[in-house]
Amino acid sequence: MLDGCESLIKDMVGELAVMEEIEAAAVQRETEWIKKMNRQGDDGGKRDTPRAGAVWRVI
User: Fold this and answer.
1) Are 28 and 34 in contact (CB under 8 A)?
2) Phi, psi at residue 56, to the nearest 5°?
3) Helix (H, G, I), strand (E, B), or coil: what is residue 22?
Protein backbone atom coordinates (compact mmCIF):
# COMPACT_ATOMS: atom_id res chain seq x y z
CA MET A 1 0.00 0.00 0.00
CA LEU A 2 2.83 2.41 0.82
CA ASP A 3 4.46 1.69 -2.53
CA GLY A 4 1.25 2.77 -4.22
CA CYS A 5 1.14 5.99 -2.20
CA GLU A 6 4.78 6.72 -3.01
CA SER A 7 4.12 6.23 -6.70
CA LEU A 8 1.08 8.49 -6.54
CA ILE A 9 3.02 11.23 -4.77
CA LYS A 10 5.88 11.04 -7.29
CA ASP A 11 3.40 11.33 -10.14
CA MET A 12 1.71 14.30 -8.48
CA VAL A 13 5.05 16.06 -8.02
CA GLY A 14 5.84 15.44 -11.67
CA GLU A 15 2.48 16.88 -12.67
CA LEU A 16 3.14 19.98 -10.57
CA ALA A 17 6.49 20.46 -12.32
CA VAL A 18 4.78 20.33 -15.71
CA MET A 19 2.16 22.80 -14.50
CA GLU A 20 4.91 25.20 -13.39
CA GLU A 21 6.50 25.02 -16.85
CA ILE A 22 3.16 25.72 -18.52
CA GLU A 23 2.53 28.65 -16.19
CA ALA A 24 5.98 30.14 -16.87
CA ALA A 25 5.44 29.89 -20.63
CA ALA A 26 1.99 31.48 -20.35
CA VAL A 27 3.33 34.35 -18.24
CA GLN A 28 6.13 34.95 -20.74
CA ARG A 29 3.71 35.00 -23.69
CA GLU A 30 1.34 37.30 -21.83
CA THR A 31 4.15 39.69 -20.92
CA GLU A 32 5.31 39.81 -24.54
CA TRP A 33 1.73 40.44 -25.71
CA ILE A 34 1.28 43.28 -23.20
CA LYS A 35 4.53 44.91 -24.32
CA LYS A 36 3.47 44.55 -27.96
CA MET A 37 0.08 46.13 -27.25
CA ASN A 38 1.72 48.99 -25.35
CA ARG A 39 4.13 49.64 -28.24
CA GLN A 40 1.39 49.89 -30.84
CA GLY A 41 0.76 53.49 -31.72
CA ASP A 42 4.06 54.74 -30.29
CA ASP A 43 4.97 56.12 -33.71
CA GLY A 44 3.67 59.56 -32.74
CA GLY A 45 0.44 59.22 -34.66
CA LYS A 46 -2.98 59.75 -33.22
CA ARG A 47 -4.31 56.78 -31.30
CA ASP A 48 -7.95 55.82 -31.48
CA THR A 49 -7.80 53.60 -28.43
CA PRO A 50 -6.72 55.07 -25.12
CA ARG A 51 -4.10 53.27 -23.12
CA ALA A 52 -4.73 51.87 -19.73
CA GLY A 53 -3.61 54.17 -17.00
CA ALA A 54 -4.72 56.24 -14.08
CA VAL A 55 -8.32 57.30 -14.56
CA TRP A 56 -7.62 60.76 -13.14
CA ARG A 57 -5.42 61.49 -16.16
CA VAL A 58 -8.40 61.02 -18.46
CA ILE A 59 -10.75 63.30 -16.53
Assistant:
1) no
2) -70, -20
3) helix
Please answer whether residues 58 and 50 qualify as being in contact, where contact means their C-beta atoms are separated by less than 8 angstroms: yes
2 confidence band (pLDDT: 50, 70, 90): confident
pTM of the complete model beyond 0.70? no
Let me know how long the chain is: 59
How many angstroms separate the CA atoms of 13 and 18, rounded? 9
The answer to whether 38 touches 51, Cβ cutoff 8 Å, is yes
Phi first, then psi: what are they for 48, rounded to 5°? -85, -30
Name the band, by pLDDT with cuts 50, 70 and 90, for residue 10.
very high
Query: What whole-number distance in Å separates Cα of residue 20 and Cα of residue 38?
Result: 27
Please state the three-class secondary structure of 19-40 as a single string: HHHHHHHHHHHHHHHHHHHHHC
